[in-house]
Amino acid sequence: MINPKNIHASEPDASLDRVDGPVKVTGTAKYSAEYQFGQLTYAVLVTSSIAKGKIKSINASKAEKAPGVLTIIHHLNSPGIPGYPVVKQPAERAPLGTAFRVFYDELIYFNGQPVAMVVAETFEQAVHAASLVQVVYEVEEHQTDFEANISKAEMAPSVRRSKNSPFQDYDRGTTDAWKNAEVKISATYTIPTQHHQPLEPHAIIAVWEAADKLTVYDKNQGVKSAQGNLAQTFKLPRENVKVISKFIGGAFGSGIRVWPHTVAAVLAAKKLNRPVKLVLGRELMFTSVGYRPYTVQKIEMGATKAGMLIAITHEGIGQTSQYEEHLERTILASRAMYACPNVSTRYRLLSLDVNTPTWMRGPGDATGMFALESAVDEMAFALNMDPLEMRLKNHADSDPERNLPWSAKSLKACYLLGAEKFGWKNRALAPRSMKSNGWLVGYGMASSLYGFHRHPSKAKAIMLADGSVVVQSATMDIGPGTGTAMSRIAAKVLGVNPRKVRFEMGDSSLPDAPGQNGSSTIPSVGSAVHVVCESLRNKLVTLAEGMPGTSPSYANILKYHNLSQLEATEESKSGPERDQYSMYSFGCHFVEVHVKPLTGEVHVKKVVTCADVGKIINEKTARSQSIGGVVGGIGMALMEASVMDHRYGRYITSDLASYHIPVHADIPQIEVHYIDKPDMLVNPIGSKGLGEIAIVGVAAAVANAVFHATGKRVRELPITLEKLI
Amino acid sequence: MRPFQYIRPKNVKEAVDMVSLEENARFIAGGTNLVDLMKRNIETPDKLVDITHLPLKKIEYHSGTLRIGALALNSDVAEHAIVNSRFPLLAKAIDAGASGQLRNMATVGGNLLQRTRCAYFYDTAFPCNKRQLETGCAAVGGINRMHAIFGLEKNDLEKSCIAVHPSDMCVALAALDAIIITFGPKGERKIPIQDFHRLPGNRPDLDSILEKGELILAVELKSNTFQQHTHYLKIRDRAAYAFAIVSAAVALDVQQDQIRAARVALGGVAHKPWRLFDVEKALAGKPISQNTFRNAAAVSVADAKTFEHNAFKIKLLPNVILEALMNAAGLEPSYD
Q1: Which residues in chain B touch residue A663, judged by CB atoms under 8 angstroms apart?
Q2: Does the distance separating the beta carbons of A725 and B119 come in below 8 Å?
Q3: CA distance B17 to chain A (A)
Q4: Sign of CA dihedral A221, A666, A722, B251
């Protein structure tokens, strides 16, 4: 028997450059809006300018006569979407739990709702005609102001119905035990609505290949889930729907769902029997693809004078639309993060006349850990204790929520490594006591955690005659470098140079895999790639038996057996270990800020981020992902906010000049460190995924640093300068 | 964007004729603002008269006067040797504006005429007197964090406008008493920058006193004694590519630690670049010191009026002026 390790050279140690780097920087990577078709038509949405009410009339006659216009679709003339129930007359507000139905009836649920779509021969013609569509509304009083309506928040109906929901009220130990603690704090933290705003706007080209056969080139984070959704919406056999999403210019969660604009484009293409392209303008990106919900959290915390946590209560109120629930992990981190005997959590939802939120990087945890990790910092200050020492003292050695051992946890190692690399020992304990060149200097830190997610995934591996390998799975790359990491996993198992591996994804006809979300791609699809490559290798090893020589190449094995290629397909999924261990990623961030005392300007000067995410598959792309998370966290802390004028129930931030995301000049040196210790209890590759945890806790670390610099505790993000002067 | 005609005139005269005689024609140069406004149906010209090829790009310095052609690119002005040596304040202000890509497209004339960035102005779903007279001002009772505190209409604010002029360059030009040279149907005229931009009053639709078809040819700056001590301080929500919450252009003429003359102009506080003559007076004749600057800066907000979300500007503004003056004078501030 041949030792498979001898078949080929072993993998190189150095990080792989991004395999799709060259096509991206040379502009040859094809994004959803860039596919070319003869007969291509261009769609533009007309959206509501009121937040609640009815469409009284739509006058499209001027628009219809505009040059190049092919069709104008709205609720009065929509050919109908087979997956929607029949329109009721008169229209009734949809029961909670109904996804928004585009061009369905005259009801307006939120400002910016699509009310009509113009399709024309050119984009410019469609834009012009859209401006000529006149919509008259019957306005009803709307409620969009979270703070003004907060008393109406309630337990989500789905949670009320499900006793096993993690969002049920939770009490460990004694309720309100914090009140009797030696040292206690109580504080309320607010994060505003934030939008993903990837630089590539959402886009789709819908092509009906036949009356019952649809292909869409769509920006999304899951081709298989989009395929399933569109098949259901248009009542097509699943295999008749093909979704292509090869390259994505950022998404951060905005592409997890199939949004109404996608359905609208497919509908128009069906009506015209021509391909339809729809690209959302930047202003529509605020109302078409979800957002991180406005959330108010109250934390009450009690500790002994020695700094041992006695009790935490964490109450979170999130925002959703009037037609759908949106639940986030907001309060869940407080149950698992620290060894604390008494923990209570409450989670409530407030329905407003807005569109439904969605998951945005580190969903729930980025929100919840801003509150929890700010509160721990407040407690450390109340105790006159170093915030890192406070966290080390209350480290949870096993999961206090589930009473299970961690599959692996190197958080203490993260703390110590980060502190050393950052120079935490130079931190003066008292706030507003460090200065440099006329600036106030602050050091802050925060922990991070993120639950482990692994979904059943399939992959196919094909050995080609020349010894190169193709690996396929219907997973995605929204930016982290999926292809690079998968190539490396495959190369390692097969013992080939990663450059000889081509990873194919972003196509719903490939083997079934989850979309890219919840930091699950590497844990799920990475495992499938590992397993399928093992399977392929075993087949090859079997074929090599009895061949002359001791170490034939893969190419020679195929040639010897007169095979043009050899393939294997496998599925990989979790087993009983899910019930035996608690699985999380952990990490921490250290941040130095400088604050100008006269003007309140905050400059982040240094960030050190450490993560324990099991095995790091490809260090170079991992680092880039961690850096991106920190940048997102800095944005969340200092500038990102979607601001609504509640008199109109409409955002006044409608472009990237008013919705600020960080620019290069805002970002300092970011150091990234990994523990890089495989967690072999979670999956065969020992790796836990990185996308979400990279941002979780960053905003708290920044806010804590600002407090240390200025002595001012800002509990309402973003930390803009007027809050500091 | 609605259909429009695009024309390239042969010379300045023809360009001016085209725009002054046509009902709804506009000049276009860099287009960094106008094109955005057209995309969102804020500006809806029937005809665009492209002037980018006209010979108005030169930057010249003769006998104490700097003349910057209206089509000189912002980036070319900011990098020009004479501008940097004799009018450093202008270079600093231009560099604080927009992004590298925009400065490479935007012209000096266009910068003078850029329109406010008030969010209500940019979205036709909101009422806005600047966009359409008599529709109301959504900002007065709305989200007005970025809005004006000076030069506000006293009588009927709802018919006026509380938006601010967004330019950084113009703040420096105001501090340096620039002259705007124009050519219109009535011939050439020279407009001091103080008179060039308007206060909103009951005609907030008009940003400047330019008449229909009147074209900016150049901006002139007279040599001054302020080269040594200038600073442009822009306070904004991120480190680059953001409009000013408040900005200050300051210039001091200092002889033996005494201030002979001072110039202080602000951005982000009014419908036009805002000169603070009272602060300048309070500085003249005084020794340079943190105390002098603090006292003078305190005068700055005497006439300010604030709204729900921009009241912080009253506190911020004197600090910004103080910091800018300290910087211009080369003093290290002490904060305690």
Answers
A1: 238-241
A2: no
A3: 28
A4: negative
> Which residues in chain A touch residue B122, judged by CB atoms under 8 angstroms apart?
654-655
Q: Which fold has domain A4-29+455-573?
A: Aldehyde Oxidoreductase; domain 4 (3.30.365)
In the structure, what pLDDT confidence band is assigned to residue A430 with cuts at 50, 70 and 90? very high
Q: What is the mean pLDDT of residues A171-188?
A: 97
Confidence at residue A9, expressed as pLDDT on a 0 to 100 scale: 45
CA–CA separation, B286 and B207 (whole Å): 36
- The answer, for B81 touching chain A at a CB cutoff of 8 Å, is no
Alpha-carbon distance of A66 to A76, in angstroms, equals 20
B109 vs B181: CA distance, rounded Å: 10
pLDDT, tens only, B233-273:
999 999 999 999 999 999 999 999 999 999 999 999 999 99
Residue A725 is nearest to which of B237, B319, B335, comparing CB atoms? B319
Fold match, A4-29+455-573 / A32-141+201-248+255-286: no
User: Which residues does chain B have within 8 Å of residue A662's beta carbon, measured at their own beta carbons?
Assistant: 238
Please name each of the domains of chain B with its CATH number: 1-49 (3.30.43.10), 231-329 (3.30.390.50)
Look up residue A120 and give its amino acid: A
Considering CB atoms only, which of A49, A643, A662 is closest to B238? Answer: A662
Is A599 close to B237, i.e. CB distance below 8 A?
no
Summarised one tens digit per residue, pLDDT across range A18-46 is 999 999 999 999 999 999 999 999 999 99
Q: Is the pLDDT of residue A5 over 50?
A: no
Residues 223-242 in B contacting A (C-alpha not used; CB under 8 Å): 235, 237-242
pLDDT category at A380 given cuts 50, 70, 90 is: very high
Q: What is the DSSP letter of A194?
A: B
Topology (CATH) of A32-141+201-248+255-286: Aldehyde Oxidoreductase; domain 3 (3.90.1170)
Instruction: State yes or no: ipTM above 0.95.
Output: yes
DSSP assignment, residue B209?
Answer: -
Tokens for A569, please give them: 């397909």
Domain spans in chain A, listed from the N-terminal domain onward: 4-29+455-573, 32-141+201-248+255-286, 151-194+292-452+580-723
